[in-house]
Design brief:
Strand content of chain A: under 5%
CATH topology of the largest domain in chain A: Four Helix Bundle (Hemerythrin (Met), subunit A)
Number of domains of chain A: 2
Helix content of chain A: 55-70%
Oligomer: homodimer
Structural class of chain A: mainly alpha
Largest interface: A-B, 52 and 52 residues
Order of helices and strands of chain A: HHEHHEEHHHHHHH
Distance between the termini of chain A: 55 Å
DNA sequence: TTTATATAATGATATAACAATTAAACATTA
DNA sequence: TAATGTTTAATTGTTATATCATTATATAAA
């Protein structure tokens, strides 16, 4: 590939933001991906190869590859027959971007919680329709686990979060799962409050009811229970003093 | 800053490059951001500064900055008093990540549509609660606009999409808006089908009903109408031959 | 066949240099 | 004085050249 090809788009009248050569490479690869000229697993070549192909230095290629890697478009392997390849999708990249940008944008906790309620409410409906024996067993096991953790606030909270994740997973919809994971880490701070015994006991009861609704395939009930459940969590987090907005959920 | 400090946070994860010095820098900055030690606009310093601070070469710092820049965490300006700064939130980064990862992951159109239905269903509920006169006027204007475009399939489709966006905006929840925008470009391909007159007419009627429900503050009805509406779109897109999965929506 | 070792490919990092860009300081002019 | 060029210094962008660390693969030995 000729250097001229890269430079050409710079020459058209001074774009406010002149694109660096590295950026041109990023754009080319990205465009190729979206036009279907690349598929996951396709090898792009080593840094040396690419530097020769684009007629730029290795460092410049590295700049471009670092960007593409961070975007999740390429994966880089070291060693013989290593180099850059088109990546398999990794939804963690998406979840990452979500948490970073929501944080930088100053989106509030209530806004994110509303979104999470929408996600989980819809996910549990789907779960009630699509659940399979494996899902149900997993959910059931988590309920048992939680039962044994009623006296362990931290443990119960963690187990409860796993239950919510399992519900979303039972929906069988990867878009929901990715979305849930992204929100999870932003909405629930690391050191959330711990559930006192009576609250934990109440939460477990609701979880059990949700499980039953999923098992019976009752979409409506499942959704209503989930939403009431999450709304009550919202009340506990965001009630009274706004200080609490930064502390974690009370039960799950 | 000592080099030793960099190595400490090697802990979790173990992607190939996790131990690279550049990644340590990325992790440190990222961590600082999430702990609130950085705010948008804060200056991190020039490449030279940072190289000295971290006791690494400029190349390594550049690697880290390129990653942070792509993540949307820092903005880099060239020239005097340039350098790296903590970025303002830019939800386009998020939408970008969504489209890239959903594409690479092979998430299907139906999965994404389910997510979009969840978003819009919840958003319209919020809109019915939070709507203000400005929102209502905007929605009303769009309905008028659509009325005049019944005979123009492409125009009507575009106007219809603006209506959906306006509904989500009326929710007043930026998380919903960001999510909607991200999905929009992936779910609705560029050249969607055009609505024939009778279908357009039907869609407009539903839009009007949704508008009324929002205006009257009737969350339940607004939600039900929106979901029925989107489900019917799903049927039109994904019915019969699976080929249609790649073509756009019929009305909006 | 399995395991250990050597080798080559490749990325990671460092150093040095120059080009291109930009904001700010400075000088000039109406 | 206020607007407008001009210079300057700081900063990123790019290139070139080495060296080190890591990894896959080929090779040899058990």
């Amino acid at each position: 590939m000729e250097k001229a090809i890269l430079i050409k788009s710079t020459s058209t009248w001074a774009p406010v933001r002149a694109n660096s050569v590295a950026n041109q490479i990023v754009l080319q690869v990205r465009e190729a991906l979206f036009e279907g000229r690349f598929l996951p697993g396709d090898r792009l070549g080593s840094e040396k190869d690419l530097a020769a192909q684009f007629d730029v230095s290795r460092i410049t290629v590295r700049d471009a590859l670092r960007t593409l890697e961070t975007m999740g478009i390429v994966e880089i392997r070291v060693g013989a027959s290593g180099g850059a390849r088109i990546a398999q999708g990794n939804l963690d990249h998406y979840s990452d971007a979500l948490s970073i940008q929501f944080r930088l944008s100053g989106i509030t906790g209530t806004e994110m919680l509303d979104l999470q309620i929408a996600i989980e409410g819809a996910a549990v409906e789907l779960a009630a329709t699509n659940r399979n024996p494996t899902d149900l067993e997993k959910l059931s096991n988590l309920l048992e686990e939680a039962e044994g953790l009623l006296g362990d606030p931290a443990g119960f909270t963690q187990s409860g979060q796993k239950f919510h994740l399992a519900v979303v997973e039972a929906s069988g919809n990867r878009a929901f799962i990715a979305q849930f994971n992204g929100l999870r880490h932003v909405v629930w701070p690391k050191n959330g409050k711990r559930a006192k015994r009576e609250i934990a006991s109440h939460a477990l009861k609701i979880h059990k009811n949700i499980y039953c609704a999923i098992r019976e395939g009752d979409r409506e009930v499942a959704r209503k229970l989930m939403i009431i459940h999450l709304e009550s969590i919202r009340t506990m987090i965001f009630s009274k003093n706004s200080k609490k907005a930064t502390s974690g959920p009370v039960c799950c």
